[in-house]
Structures are given as structure tokens and as C-alpha cells.
Amino acid sequence: MLRFLLPWALILCSAFTSCLARRAPYAMRISCGARQNVQTRPTSTLWYKDFGYTGGIPGNASHPNYISPPLKTLRYFPLSEGPSNCYNIHRVPKGHYSVRIFFGIVVSSRATSEPLFDISIGGTQIYSLKSGWTNQDDQVFAEALLFLMDGTVSICFHSTGHGDPAILSIEILQIDDKAYYFGPQWGQEIILRTVKRLSCGFGQSKFGIDYGGDPWGGDRFWDHVKSFGQDSDRPRSVEDRVKQASLPPNFYPETLYRSALVSTDSQPELTYKMDVDPSRNYSIWLHFAEIDNSVTRAGQRVFDIVINGDNAFEDIDIIELSGNRFTALVLNTTFTVNGRTLTITLKPKQGSLAIISAIEIFEIITVESKTLSEEVRALQSLKKALALPPRFGWNGDPCVPQQHPWTGVDCQLDRKSGTWVIDGLGLDSQGLKGFLPNDISGLHNLQTLNLSGNSIRGAIPSSLGAIGKLQVLDLSYNFFNGSIPESLGQLTSLKRLNLNGNLLSGRVPASLGGRLLHRASFNFTDNADLCGIPGLPTCGSHLSVGGIIGIGLGASLAFLILVTCSVCWWKRRQNILRAQQLAARAAPYAKARTQSSRDIQMNRHTSYGNGRNAVETGPILLSS
Ligand SMILES: *[C@@H]1O[C@H](CO)[C@@H](O)[C@H](O)[C@H]1NC(C)=O
Ligand SMILES: *[C@@H]1O[C@H](CO)[C@@H](O)[C@H](O)[C@H]1NC(C)=O
Ligand SMILES: *[C@@H]1O[C@H](CO)[C@@H](O)[C@H](O)[C@H]1NC(C)=O
Ligand SMILES: *[C@@H]1O[C@H](CO)[C@@H](O)[C@H](O)[C@H]1NC(C)=O
Ligand SMILES: *[C@@H]1O[C@H](CO)[C@@H](O)[C@H](O)[C@H]1NC(C)=O
Ligand SMILES: *[C@@H]1O[C@H](CO)[C@@H](O)[C@H](O)[C@H]1NC(C)=O
Question: Where are the transmembrane segments (predicted)?
Fold first, then answer.
């Protein structure tokens, strides 16, 4: 029995472990505006209910009649919700992803025209909607292939003044780490934005999942074309198996190679032409399989591929390069388009006509530098403390995409670190309430801060003194109270300081007053009770609590000393008086003695020539 079971067990095990090795890719699909998870037929694709958004309003989507999935809800972002809104999806495993966003039209929307807006992922602008997108199957979404390495993806929608951005769905689908590798320039520093993905020949537009494609292929949408136009081609399709299709890293669906467009005898060249944005780099992928029964050997169909006049590939022989008939061949190249059109021409050289199964065109976008994360945190703390209303659109990255920085934030690229830093903040006259948080000192590169004309309360944070580059600080016309922090004296670059029109009190720091008098303009007027520099009252007449205590202590001490002194003086005086009284009582005897001695002296000398005797005798003479 065991002898029979063992081989089966081994087979099962190996099948199981290979299943483990090929785990399913991460997939997150969001049905925007949906209150419940949604499952769409026929593939039972799971769409999570709406989450992760920063604003906007849920609504019903007008039925997209040209494309699946038939999601019924959307989220739209009127300007009152701010110029930029985002979906922030967290806990996304590190990896390579295809991110796709379907646009929508709000049912019974006041605006009759389609909205046009910009889309960014992680701060890099990937797409601007083009008018007419509602009429083209492959224009109703934007798709980008990129690396997500920090666990979070922020997908933002930026108003451009052409209607309210409206989003039907967001998909974050993991793909192979090397998918669409095209050469050394490929990597985490670039994003590939899908411009075109055509499946040529008979068939219908489909998603990879409908084709039974490998999930690691990213569920690509293949837009079917039956002709490149001008009667220069005819579609062809077969039912045969095609080998080498679903291989890593791109896992193309086999079905892709079962149909093709073939040029005609009257027009042997096969030409595909499309409008593109000028001066961009494109990655171009061309798909072939020899499915024509008339071509059976190498050498029977050889052609060149010319892109905008340049020979991209020469002597392409599908059977020779792929190794067989009914075998997939994928070629890729990068190309800089200078004009507004991209033209791909297949020029037959030997034998038969040209044939092609599919075309993919990507725009190569360089990933934008981000804002220094410490400064982003400082701004987020400020956003919270000032309770910034949505109209400011402080979502996503403060500085990028460069076309859509946060309202009131001035940015500068620090070339050394390759990050953006904030060098100016102007939120003057915006009706802001709240307070100024200590964390504002995280904005180390701030040179100008203007919060004038708001209703900001509380103390001026002493941490402002740590922003060494600050040149202009305007906090005028708010409700700042308390005293001016000593630390502001450390701001050696300060040229302008407006603190007028607040409720400040106490002494202006001497360091500040003295220096400002010489080099900078300042205004401390219209405050509660400031003192200490010329132009303001002297601090003596306006005493702080500390001052009062100090003076109280001083006065008590002085009183003590006075009392002590008076006591001493009185005691001394008493002593003197007593001594005089004693002296007075002793005087008659003294007089008598002197008298007698003088009598003796007079008797001896009979002369007053000695002054001392005269003084000595004075009192005696007076008193007698
Ligand atoms: C969306 O449509 C449903 C019915 O399908 C309706 O109950 C709901 O009120 C609509 N919501 C909005 C925002 O129009
Ligand atoms: C794309 O072409 C380059 C050569 O130009 C090649 O190195 C690379 O492997 C190709 N990529 C894929 C996925 O086949
Ligand atoms: C296109 O690529 C070249 C080098 O491959 C690069 O110098 C140039 O900056 C790129 N252009 C754009 C618009 O990215
Ligand atoms: C700050 O903004 C106010 C109001 O907009 C303006 O009057 C003032 O000149 C600005 N302050 C500085 C220092 O530029
Ligand atoms: C400043 O105002 C706040 C209320 O806005 C108050 O709580 C605080 O005590 C005041 N501080 C001073 C020093 O007056
Ligand atoms: C200071 O501000 C007051 C108003 O608060 C204004 O009248 C005065 O002209 C300003 N002084 C200077 C020097 O700017």
C-alpha cells in the first residue's frame, strides 16, 4: 500500500511546494465611493469598499458602457474639498507594482463636460487627462508600473480648473520584480506609464484576467484593433497553441499571439501611427508569432522595424528569432520622440508581408524627488494645529508634483541631498485659528514665515529661535499672548520682525531689541504690554509678576536695613547722651580741679601764652 502512496505523496508535495514558491501577487482593488465590498462577475474580482481617501464626496457613476468592471459608485473632489486629494494606501509590501486608476462621470453632474485633471503617484505626476477621454476605451484609466518601497502609496488627484476629478477605482497589483526591464536605465528611479497597449487582429478588448492570464502579469487591459487604418492590413487569427508566451518576467497571455495584423500586397508596409507628448522618452514593446500557414521556415518573412525614421530593428525573422512557428517573440527598445507623433513601420525585406500581434508603448518618467520627511511632519503638525480647512489641499507631498505644491508653501530643491525643502510659508490673511506648534522648528530651511492677519492664539513658540535661516517673521495681527521668547534673539539672519497687533506683554528680549535697532526692521506696536526698547515704555512702570515680587523683596530688605540702622543709630545716640550726662555730672569737680591747677599755673607763670590752656580753660570760663 505504502509503495503506491509514496510516489503520489511526493508528487503532491512537490506540487504543493511549487505552489508555495509561486504565491499569489499582492492585489488591492478599491471601488471608490462604495459602502460595501463589491464582487464583479464573471471573474469574482474583489473590490474593497472605499477607504484611504483624504476628502471628496461619494457619488453614483454614470454607467461606463465601454468597459468592465461595471462599478457603480465613484468619489469626486469638488474644489471646496481642496485642489489636491489623495488615496493613501498603507501596508503595501515592498515590490514592483502596476497601479491603475479608472476615471468616472458623476451621475446628474451639473457639469456636462468630462473633468480634466492631473494624477500623481508618490509625488510624481504621471498623467494629465486629455479631452475626449470618455470616448476611448483605453483613455478611461491611467496605469503606471513602479516600485513601492516604503510600505505606503499616495495616489493624488489635482484639479486643473476643468471640472471635479472623479475616480471610479484604484488597483494596486503586484507584478514581477523585473517586469518590463528594458536596460540599465530601468529601475526604482523610473516609472513606466502605459500609453498604449494594443492587441492586433480579431477579438475584443479584454483584461488579462479575462484571457486567463497569469496574475503576475498585472491584469493588463488589451485594447483590440482590427486595423491600423487605410486598408493597409487585414486581421488574422488562429486557434493553435502558441509557445513561450506566458514567461517571466512579463507573463503575456497566450491569446495575444493567436491574432495578428498582416499587411496587404497592395501595401506591404505595415504602419502604426499615434499622437504622443513631445520630448519624452518611450519604451516600445512589439509582439510577434508566426501564425501564417504560408510561412513555414526561417527566411520566408524578414522585415525591418523603423520608428520615426530610425531603424530600430533590422532583419527581423520571427521563426529564426523565436526558434519555431507558433512561438512568441517580444522585442523592446527605447526611443526619444521629438515631434508629436510616433510612427512604427514594419518594412518587409524578403518574401512575405509584415505581421504583428501586439504593441505596447510606455512613457518613461523619472521619479520626482520628495520633500524632506522631517519637514513634511512639521507641516502636518502645523496643518493640525491651525486646523487648516480642506480648501488648502495639504495632501500628498508638499512640494511635488512641482505643478501642484501645497497652498502657501514655497519649495526649493536641495541638490546635495536630492530632496525638496520648505523655504517659505505664507498663510497670511486666511482666517486661521488655532495655535503655533513647537514642531514648527522642524522647518529648518524656512527663510520667510508670514502668518499675519489670522486669529492664531497662545504663545509664540520659543522653538522658532531654532530656525536659524529665518529672515522674515511676520506674526502681526493675531492673538499671540505671553512674552516674546528670549530665543528669538538667536535669529541672526532676521531682517524683518513684525509682532505688532497682538496681545504680547513683558520685556522685549534685550538681544533682539539691540540688534534689530541696528540691522533690521521691526514692529512691536499695538500689543498688550510690551516694554524695554526705545519706542516702547520703560519696563519699570509696567511691572511683571516677577518684577513685583522682586521689588517687594527688595523693599522688605531695604526696610529691614533701615530698621536695623535706626535701631543702631538710636542705641548709639543713647550711649552718647548717657556719656554726656555722666560727663555733665562730673563737671564741677573737674572745674574745681582745673581752677586750682590754673591758679597754680598762673601763679607759676602769670602768662596766657599757651593756647591749650586757653581752650581748656574756655568752658570753665563760660560756665562760670
Ligand atoms: C445612488 O443611487 C442609489 C440607487 O441606485 C440611490 O439610492 C442613492 O441615493 C444614489 N446616491 C447619490 C449620491 O446620488
Ligand atoms: C528588452 O531589451 C533589452 C535589450 O535592448 C534586453 O536586455 C532586455 O532583456 C529586454 N527585456 C525583456 C523583458 O525581454
Ligand atoms: C531621455 O533619455 C535621455 C538619456 O537616455 C536623457 O538624457 C533625457 O533626459 C531623457 N528625457 C526625458 C524627457 O526624460
Ligand atoms: C505678510 O502678509 C501681509 C498680508 O498679506 C502683508 O501685508 C505683509 O507685507 C506680509 N509681510 C511681509 C514681511 O512680507
Ligand atoms: C494666552 O491665551 C490663552 C488662551 O488663548 C490662555 O490659555 C493663556 O493662559 C494665555 N497666556 C498668557 C500668558 O496670558
Ligand atoms: C507698526 O505697525 C503699526 C500698526 O500696528 C503701524 O501703524 C506702524 O506704521 C508700523 N511701524 C512700522 C515701523 O512699520
Answer: 543-570
